[in-house]
Amino acid sequence: MDDDKLLNLILLCIPLSLVSFGGGQTIVASLQHQTVDILHLLSGPQFTDLYAISRAAPGPGTLIVALIGWELSGLWGAVLATLAIFIPSSILLCILGSYWQRHRHTAWALAAEKGLAPVAVGLIFAGVFAVGQSARFTPLELATSLGAIAVLLTTKTGPYPLLAVVGVGYFLLSFAGMA
Amino acid sequence: MDKPVGDIGMEREENVTTLALLVSFLRLGASSFGGGMAGWTHREIVERRGWLTDDEFLKTLTVAQIMPGANPVNLAVYIGLKLRGVAGACIALFGMVLPAFAVILAMSVTYQQLKSHPEAQAVLRGLACVGIASSLTMGIKTARRLKGHALPILMAIAVFLMVGVMRWSLVAVVAGAIPVSVAATFWIEREKSRG
Asked: What pTM does this model have?
């Protein structure tokens, strides 16, 4: 049972690895949709929890697949999901990297560099939309998100101080029975 | 022994031991909190170790950013490949991912222990809010680079609708969208250079 789930996760990760331009945030939409709605590996709130942990953790956001793997099959699940998300893109890089490097000044190579950005933008917003939908935010949580966006866009504050402040704030609110 | 691939880093091959490579990338992996990984990697590989020149590093960085995969990991793998061939690439991948992997597993175990407590649930909801906010901010900042050109903006909106709203297969949409987007960019750039 769990092995089937892990196999499904690995088969999901391998193709996503090859299209994860710019890293983890571009594949979140598909991870959410597939693991929650299609394959039923996780519940919506479970996915939101793992997403929250992966955004608070160091390292590439792609490591959310390690959390999903751990949730499904423990250590082996985490290890195999991590390999499945990093190895295919690394192999492609090793095969195509020096070719790309030799041709990087041609007009097509420069167009490819710029042409990836619109696709990445669309995918990042799709990921935010997917997680936002499955998270079913309360008005307080929505206000927190909007406040955090305002802070991140208008100041030089990074996400870590915000994570600390909001984490402590929500703990206190919950402790006081208000959230 | 694996031979380095490509045209850079060859003359330094004998100076780069497997152990030194592993130590360097474990250090980098352990410092991968937040962003700025290209800067950290430059400091370690170019300034501290002297394994690559500035110019070689910049070439490597371009390749790492354009290929699929997390950029810091790609950068490490490609540097490893240049310095010590396939074995170097494997060592770099291992060193880069292991520290973050260990931390995220520790967080996962803590989550399993605490998730039944309402306070832990509240904290996670708060972290999710900030996580979404930082993803959205990243999207907005990347979108600003499109600089108001109609075609790239339409492309971004189309990809968002297909993947986010209509929930088509992300892999299929990306496979279709990239050639179109690259061809459109090629055309825009050519028109621009003609004035």
From this structure: 0.90
